[in-house]
Amino acid sequence: MGFYPNTLDVLIEKFASLPGIGKKSAQRLAFYVLTMNYEEAENFANAIMQAKRNIRRCKICQNLSEDDICPICASDTRDKEIICVVSEPKDVFSIEKSHEYKGVYHVLHGVLSPANRIGPGDIKIQELIDRVNNGSVKEIIMATNPDTEGETTALYISRLLKPYGMKITRLAYGVPVGSNLEFTDEATLTRALEGRIEI
Amino acid sequence: MGFYPNTLDVLIEKFASLPGIGKKSAQRLAFYVLTMNYEEAENFANAIMQAKRNIRRCKICQNLSEDDICPICASDTRDKEIICVVSEPKDVFSIEKSHEYKGVYHVLHGVLSPANRIGPGDIKIQELIDRVNNGSVKEIIMATNPDTEGETTALYISRLLKPYGMKITRLAYGVPVGSNLEFTDEATLTRALEGRIEI
Prior knowledge:
The structure is a homodimer of 199-residue chains. The first copy, chain A, is globular. In chain A, helix 1 packs across helix 2. Chain A starts with 5 loop residues before the first helix and ends in a 5-residue tail after the last helix. In chain A, the strands form two sheets. A four-stranded parallel β-sheet of chain A has the order 4-3-5-6. Chain A has a two-stranded antiparallel sheet with strand order 1-2. In chain A, strand 1 (56-57) and strand 2 (64-65) form a beta hairpin. Chain A is an alpha/beta fold and 199 residues long. The first copy, chain A, has helices at residues 6-16, 23-35, 38-54, 71-74, 89-97, 125-134, 148-161, 186-194, and strands at residues 56-57, 64-65, 79-86, 103-107, 139-142, 167-170. At the A-B interface, helix 1, helix 2, helix 3, strand 2 and helix 5 of A face helix 1, helix 2, helix 3, strand 2 and helix 5 of B.
């Protein structure tokens, strides 16, 4: 660009490199930083470094954690015999919000995707196998996203785990609570009919 | 939220406090920071502090600058007798991109806005009067935005400057180059007709 002072150009460039932030938004954010007082700007910069420094992956479930073992894996009240497998850390937080699940998790950090050249070695599948080998796991709940890549990943892992003989389940498909049949797609309705339950 | 590790919560909160960044985007950005390597994260944090530390306002035109006097005000080739008054620093950069203007600027850092309680003392009007008092200014070009607040600000300042007797002009209104009359609003067309020029 060259019309902005150099340090401002650099900051705009950094914001523009973030996902979903275009050039105009990056400029707006950079200008906003200049309007912060010194302490606010320092807090923002520190928050970036603190998160980067303090957050690691739980040695057991691979979820984001400030400790070597995350609070869920370290808890006495969680059932270690049930492992819910998700693709991303944010999925753990979504499921936790339901306050329904009492087992533990395993975060794959991705899904199998031939198109993006992501194979079994690129996500945390071996770490799951190791857990199954070392512990007494009774059930694996596959909770990857209900899209093609999520399904493929769930299928691939369930085949790998089959020889171990534990129960392997998948989240139920169906119409979302509070939704409207009129606006539900056919594939979902088909799955909802197939999975119908007696009342 | 409480489901995320604390330092991650803090970072999400910082991103969410930026203008135009909602909760979901803030989460996405915070997760992205965690995927950066340490050096990238450090560069991002440093860019924030460097911009905040190094960028000040030019003592003459109030535009953003890394020096006490900005490159435009310091330049020998710019005509100091013409001052283009804009509301924000980004407007200077927009006009500079046209490579047409050879005068200098004055950045108000805002517009008069009774609704937002922004009065003449809250924007850099006195600094403009001081420049007019101290220099030999022949023309003031009012280039605030063509909206109600921009117009009001331009009118207010032009009345203040009237006694000094220099030429006071306003950017021309009209149909944008490359646009289509069919999609031009009536107010713009009215102004374009009023301002018609002989060919």
